[in-house]
Amino acid sequence: xTPDSLSAIISCISGYDPDAMTVPQAQQIxxxxxxxxxxxxxxxxxxxxxxxxxxDVLSAIDVPANDNSAMDGYALRGDDxxxxxxxxxRIVGNVHAGQRxxxxxxxxxxxxxMTGAALPADCxxxxxxxxxxxxxxxxxxxxxxxxxxxRGDNRRLRGEDLRLGQVALRGGKLLRPADIGLLASLGVPxxxxxxxxxVAFFSTGDELRSVGETLxxxxxxxxxxxxxxxxxxxLGCDMIDMGVVKDDPIAxxxxxRSACEQADAVITSGGVSVGAADYTKQTMSKLGxxxxxxxxxxxxxxxxxxxxxxxxxxxxxxxxxxxxVAVMVSFYxxxxxALLRMMGADAAPLxxxxxxxxxxxxxxxxxxxxxxxxxxVDASGHWQVRLTxxxxxxxxxxxxxxxxxxxxxxxxxxxxxxxxxxxxxxDGLT
Length: 430
Ligand code: AMP
Ligand code: MG
Fold this sequence. Notes:
With 430 residues, this protein is of the alpha/beta class. The protein has helices spanning 6-11, 23-33, 177-185, 224-234, 249-262, 278-287, 324-342, 397-401, and strands spanning 40-44, 57-58, 68-69, 73-76, 87-95, 109-113, 125-128, 141-144, 155-156, 167-169, 190-194, 198-204, 208-209, 220-221, 238-245, 265-269, 288-294, 297-298, 302-310, 313-320, 352-356, 368-377, 383-387, 404-408, 420-424. The strands form seven sheets. Strands 15-12-16-20-19-17 form a six-stranded mixed sheet. Strands 18, 21, 22, 23, 24 and 25 form a six-stranded mixed sheet that branches. The chain has a five-stranded mixed sheet with strand order 7-4-6-5-8, with no helix packed on it.
């Protein structure tokens, strides 16, 4: 999709109402508006961990490069297995991993072979050492007492992992430990990845104090910059922490300008609720194309989304609500996917599963609710979820105690204990 204006995108959405957005509508608009960055850099494969692969990687070799043994034992000719047992075989050589046996292996003969060693040309089968019998270590014969292998057993075939020319990894993949190992198995020392996303963030609010400062009467410590830091770090972003910005139009404009001059995306928290600190909205709109939504969700109802520019530089902007739980929920259900799309990542959505809820949950149809849950296995080995306790949007402990978020969609009504609910794993099962 080509870059488009927000107004063009929303004109295609039937019944668009900024004061009554559904979660899926808002998610769709964000996905349609965002275009991947496509800025590529070459890095050593270890540095490519958690980065987005820029292009498909084709295998330049067969992996493994030779038929080889999967066991320590004896390489033999499959034809010999048609002979009666016990079957004596003469040992005509020895081959270790990294060596080649170049001699002939005739009928009734075998070669002692170690795991990973290339199979001798005449052999197609390996009998594990523990299925054989040898009179003494000096004996040049080994006996197979009974039919314990079939032709082709314990042989790893050339190219069975990857064939020459085959796509080993697809561009867009977020590289995990197995992937950088796979690149190493292809002999690739460096790889093209998307450059890290630069994300600037700041908190807004006169009442906010930063850690290390005295907590004046009526003030709260700013926690959103810390949860955002953690969530952005997990996504592998480069971060620009711009601190706390006062509810003041001049300070606000300076912060927004500086943020979008330095970053690909800007995330703010606070000041987007109805009536509160209106100049946040004014400033955002002044600097770009901006939508303000009331999304049918709890927590996290208000949100601003768009693109702002300054000095010829522009950045996507996510104006999140101020409440600490709302910030995290909005991040996981809107911002995360948007940032992954900017990174060009072909990432799976957060894992979602259906499990019975131990807790009865009150829920009004007509909005999406995100309740914090603890997913655990019961005594009989079945997964189940229960609420973490008080679910207020300012109660950050409910996120800290949770290992999943229970998603109750628009249509859902009250949940009775034992009913299945959808849970989303947002940060692993820790
Ligand atoms: P606001 O959206 O600015 O009206 O803020 C909503 C609520 O979230 C208020 O109680 C704020 O004090 C609180 N809040 C806003 N920003 C932060 C922050 N960075 N850390 C902790 N609480 C915040
Ligand atoms: Mg505020």
